[in-house]
Amino acid sequence: MNRERLRMRFSGEKGFVEGLKRGLMMAGFGIKEGLTGLVRLPVQGVKSEGAWGGVKGTLKGVIGLVAKPVAGVLDGVSGIAGGIG
After folding, report:
1. Residues 6 or more apart from 45 whose CB is under 8 A from it?
2. Per-residue pLDDT at 62
3. Global pTM?
4. Segments in the chain forming alpha helices (H)
5. Whole-angstrom Cα distance, residue 50 to residue 30?
6. pLDDT of residue 30
7. Quick one: pLDDT at residue 63?
């Protein structure tokens, strides 16, 4: 998780609109991290472990492509709910 995402996640909400804005940004961060991991992880795997590392990196990237956007959306829902309550 990058610093900007952590800062946004743990800063207090200030109403519905701010919570909605923060929630949408968190969902966007999750999608971005999932997409960049699909490229970054196989490259890192090849550099560190050769062809087998590339295979492992590809599998991690595919899993992250699903898991990170889902986590981002859940963080987003949490931000929206925090803004309401």
Report:
1. 52, 53, 54, 55, 56, 57, 58, 60
2. 94
3. 0.67
4. 3-10, 16-84
5. 28
6. 84
7. 95
- As given in the structure block, the two tokens for residue 60 are 């991690």
**Length in residues, the chain:** 85
Q: Give the mean pLDDT of the chain.
A: 81
Name every residue whose Cβ is closer than 8 Å to that of residue 18 and which is 6 or more positions away in sequence.
83
For residue 5, give the amino acid letter.
R
Question: Which amino acid is present at 81?
Answer: A
> How many angstroms separate the Cα of 18 from the Cα of each of 27, 30, 43, 68, 69?
14, 18, 37, 22, 21
Residue partners of 34: CB distance under 8 A and separation at least 6: 64, 65, 66, 67, 68, 69, 72
Q: Which of the residues in the chain have pLDDT under 50?
A: none
Q: What is the pLDDT of residue 12?
A: 57
